[in-house]
Specification:
The chain folds into 2 domains: 8-83 and 102-176, 3-Layer(aba) Sandwich (NADH Oxidase); 195-254 and 267-372, no CATH class. The strands form 3 sheets. A 4-stranded antiparallel sheet has the order 1-2-7-4, with helices on both faces. The protein has a two-stranded parallel sheet with strand order 3-8. Strands 5-6 form a two-stranded antiparallel sheet. The chain is α+β, with helices and mostly antiparallel strands. The chain has 18 helices and 8 strands. Residues 266-270 have low confidence and may be disordered. The protein is elongated, with a radius of gyration of 22 Å.
Length: 376
């Protein structure tokens, strides 16, 4: 929608562009929508897994006005984080840990929130209206709002897709009490394409536009705290933090451009870290390596669990002595259990030897179960 150049909406979008946002669109925040019902069904099916906060904040998530009763408009912002090339070929680099594209640079929460706060402050001063800022950490459904505002549409992988930026967009939101002119909602342009559904290594989509987080590698490697369920370990491959498969295969990415935000690509050492180096990290080393990265919030134990699963999938027996066996004595049961599995995959003779020597002394029931499993 074309606003007059001196309108509040036009000035807001110009400010957003000056701050580096790829797009800025507006929608009503106080209208009924179906997204709340879809979220409720998602939780009722148990597809949220261990993300209990989705259940406890369900009522607040179901509508923007449940977050803030005075909200009239939602200003939706998109920041392009398009990578220089498709990350899919890196899945074959089995001695390296594959990190989801969004987490290879600076923490996007900090990056976007700083810009959002500046935009919200300027808008509030200009309009005299109240505002509230949201970046993925509050119970607000950004993707349905972004679709309603016209930034893109929620594809069959449930993520936002843009005709200009493909599937590589960070989202932020500003709710305001201002009555702003809304933009037109975007239509679904997925058509008959199933690429994102068919590439999923763990069949995490029970149907188009539905995700079962309990089967999703992004959920398993980041949100899930316990052992990785056995059926998903081999499909994880070298993915140690997140999974980009469904995003990277999207045909609309042919229109995407490499992000111009240098902070998203400033940490080259996070692109493809070697599994051997990651396996050697203690808690202090983990915090040092991933300082300023969203990965830091996952914690050392969860990351080491993922790294050991990736080592088990690497096909490299040379990693057993220095990277696997030392973690059979790790203080964290989730790490010990992953080390047992990795050993069973890489060196059967060593596995049988260590099982005979250690299994009887193991105190954790979960790790005992790992030793008892038939190696595969």
């Amino acid at each position: 929608m074309n606003e007059p150049e001196d309108s509040l909406e036009a000035r807001l979008k110009r400010m957003a562009g000056d701050l580096g946002f790829a797009d800025c669109r507006i929608c009503r925040a106080d209208e009924p929508w179906a997204a709340g019902e879809r979220l409720e069904a998602f939780v009722e099916r148990g597809h949220h897994g261990e993300m209990g906060w989705m259940e406890t904040t369900l009522e607040r998530r179901k509508a923007p006005t449940a977050m803030w009763a005075d909200a009239k408009s939602a200003v939706m912002l998109a920041m392009n984080y398009g990578p220089p090339a498709s990350p899919l070929p890196q899945l074959e680099m089995r001695e390296h840990g594959n990190i989801s594209v969004y987490a290879r640079g600076a923490d996007y929460h900090d990056l976007i929130k700083k810009k959002l706060k500046q935009l919200a402050r300027d808008f509030a001063e200009t309009s005299g209206e109240e505002v509230k800022v949201f970046v993925d950490t509050a119970p607000l459904m950004e993707k349905p709002l972004a679709e309603k505002a016209g930034l893109g549409w929620q594809g069959k992988h449930t993520n936002l897709v843009s005709r200009e930026h493909g599937s590589w967009l960070f989202l932020g939101a500003i709710l305001t009490a201002a009555e702003l002119q809304p933009d037109e909602a975007e239509e679904d342009h997925c058509g008959s394409c199933r690429a994102c559904l068919d590439i999923c290594p763990t069949d995490a989509f029970p149907a188009p536009y539905q995700l079962d987080a309990r089967r999703c590698i992004s959920y398993l490697t980041i949100e899930h705290a316990g052992p990785i369920p056995a059926e998903f370990r081999a499909p994880m491959g070298n993915r140690i933090y997140g999974c980009d498969d469904c995003l990277a295969i999207c045909p609309w990415n042919k229109f995407a451009r490499t992000s111009a935000e240098h902070k998203l690509w400033a940490r080259a050492e996070l692109k493809l870290p070697e599994l051997e180096d990651l396996a050697a990290l203690d808690d202090e080393g983990f915090r040092e390596v991933f300082a300023g990265s969203p990965i830091k919030r996952t914690g050392r134990n969860r990351m080491l669990r993922n790294v050991l699963i990736a080592i088990g999938n690497s096909g490299e027996p040379r990693l057993v002595g220095g990277s696997v066996v030392p973690h059979l004595d790790d203080e964290a049961p989730v790490v010990r259990g992953a080390a047992v599995w990795a050993l069973s995959r890489l060196d059967m003779a060593r596995f049988e030897s260590e099982r005979a020597r250690r299994a009887g002394d193991e105190s954790d029931e979960g790790v005992k179960a790992e030793w008892a499993l038939t190696p595969r």
